User: Which sequence fits this backbone?
């Protein structure tokens, strides 16, 4: 199994634990198990005090819409979700909804996730740990700086 496959599998297991059933038995479920996949995560280099754009794709296979309400990191003062509107520029938004069987791609020019007020310089090769707030739950993730 490749390193990437192990990382994806580890993330799916983490999401299943965070969003999964309250039952301790794997073969008994009273709630649907969520399947949210985070792929292609990377962070942009930035100086201490600056802003790093986090690129990632969130795939939603939960069977329902999922609402992303934030991004946080111990490595930054704040995080923001940003939409870029033609003629108006970038604006912070409070939430983004991902419909079932859809993805939200933060690698595009009009949707951004940012970590602001960096506590250290983000250099190529560094690992940035962050948390996505999905439907009121904290989902841990990580990205290398490129």
Assistant:
């Amino acid at each position: 199994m490749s390193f990437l496959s192990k990382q994806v599998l580890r993330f799916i297991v983490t999401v299943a634990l965070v969003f999964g059933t309250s039952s301790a038995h794997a073969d008994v479920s009273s709630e649907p198990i969520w399947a949210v996949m985070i792929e292609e995560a990377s962070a942009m280099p930035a100086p201490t005090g600056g802003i790093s754009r986090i690129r990632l794709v969130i795939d939603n296979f939960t069977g329902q819409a999922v609402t992303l309400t934030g991004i946080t990191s111990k490595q930054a003062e704040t995080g923001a979700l940003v939409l870029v509107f033609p003629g108006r520029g970038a604006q912070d938004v409070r939430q983004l909804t991902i419909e079932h069987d859809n993805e939200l791609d933060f690698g595009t020019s009009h949707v951004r996730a940012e970590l602001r007020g960096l506590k250290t310089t983000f250099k190529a090769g560094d690992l940035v740990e962050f948390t996505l707030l999905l439907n009121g739950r904290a989902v841990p993730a990580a990205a290398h700086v490129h």
